[in-house]
Amino acid sequence: MAIKEELIEKIKSREAVVAVVGLGYVGLPFAVEKAKAGFKVIGIDRSEQRCAMVNRGENYISDVIDEELTEVVGKGLIQAVTGFEEIGKCDAIVIAVPTPLDKNLAPDLQYIVAVTHAIAPHLRKGQLVSLESTTFPGTTEEVMLPILEKSGLKVDEDFFLTHSPERVDPGNKRYTTKNTNKVVGGYGPNSLEIGVAFYSATLLSVVPVSSAKAAEMVKVFENTFRAVNIALVNELLLLCDRMNLDVWEVLEAANTKPFGIMRFMPGPGVGGHCIPLDPHYLEWKAREYNFCTRFIALAGEINRRMPEFVIEKTMRVLNDHGKSLRGTRILALGASYKKDIDDWRESPSITCMKLLEENGAVLDYHDPFVDEFNDHGFAKKGVALTEETLANYDFAIILTDHSTVDYANVVAKVPAVLDTRNATRNLPDELRNKVTLL
């Protein structure tokens, strides 16, 4: 097949031009890896600010190394634009746009649909289109393909279509875009062969699966697995609270077993773009098959309940100190959804802050990675962690366990502390006696 062989040869020789649509936590690291491998990359993002920063070689994603971005931009290997006029020049088009849920926890595919419509008029023979956005099984085939085929081109003959789910773990220094195994599923054998060739040219390990739908299921299962296990330890925390047991002691001891167990830790809830959302994609899609994913639904209920339990526990601790939540000056430590990153998407820390204020607390927050945030109108600016500010608070609550925060100093200066992450486990006993664990 001449079209297929020509595209594969372009990929192998690094002559293929790559478009990356969406220059966020997934798209920019991938664009940089492609450029480092010698490909010309055109990044497309609706944000003029992001495009301008990329074109100046200015980094805004923590998982991208500043010097690597500067180098590939300086070599002319990455260019960022806001429109789709350059798509016709590209041989491979990677889509990495958000896939949120609506207020009813149903998939919101507006970004995927809009991008696919924008690509379709420019589609030509010999192009690969690969969706990396996390979504329900069937999206690539049932949503994207009908739009792309309006071009008159035939999939797996004239153009090629794959799904290769992103596996980005923000802040993970061991597993990056390059060395994380890459799953690829194609709509037909030619699409799969080209998809494997495209990703193998950049990444260390590619795992082919039988279809785009199978690849989509792989991703939602991975994150559902994590969501279910986090829900299990969160439910254990709730039970241990009733039984007056230290859940952290129980888990630490259980995790010493060398087989048959995996380390998951409880906390104020789950956050990020994947774990709070992906199980609902699977849950929603299952209804089409008259199938009820009860286990997944229960896990979601438990994890969504955790911020409310944090507020309940806060009230109990304050009551033990003769205070009510209303009017108490509280310092929340942490806004991002996990330690040592600046990503606050779907963060349970922010949900807890909202609930604290709704219940009358006078709230400030500190996060060394998040200077400010605006979550659907709930906006706050962080405060510096100084001796003067610490003296202003009656209570502190650790919501994200950043490594750079001096928890010993916080505990020493603030009358009472609730620790939702066991961040104070290594403090001396005279300080730990002031701390209540979630």
- Total helical segments: 15
Helix/strand-derived category reads alpha/beta
Rg over alpha carbons: 24 Å
Number of strands: 15
**CATH fold topology of the largest domain:** Rossmann fold
What distinguishing features does this structure have?
alpha/beta, elongated, Rossmann fold, 438 residues
Can you walk me through this structure?
With 438 residues, the chain is an alpha/beta fold. The chain folds into 2 domains: 2-210, NAD(P)-binding Rossmann-like Domain (Rossmann fold), CATH 3.40.50.720; 235-437, Rossmann fold (3-Layer(aba) Sandwich), CATH 3.40.50. It is 39% helix and 14% strand. The protein has 15 helices and 15 strands. The protein has helices spanning 2-12, 27-36, 48-55, 66-74, 110-119, 139-148, 189-200, 212-243, 247-254, 278-286, 294-320, 348-358, 387-390, 407-413, 429-432; strands at residues 17-21, 40-44, 78-81, 92-95, 128-131, 160-163, 182-186, 206-209, 329-333, 362-366, 372-375, 378-381, 395-398, 417-419, 435-437. The strands form 3 sheets. Strands 3-2-1-4-5-6-7-8 form an 8-stranded mixed β-sheet, with helices on both faces. A 5-stranded parallel β-sheet has the order 10-9-13-14-15, covered by helices on one side. Helix 5 (110-119) runs parallel beside helix 6 (139-148) and helix 11 (294-320) packs across helix 12 (348-358). The radius of gyration is 24 Å and the shape is elongated. The model has no long low-confidence stretch (mean pLDDT 95).
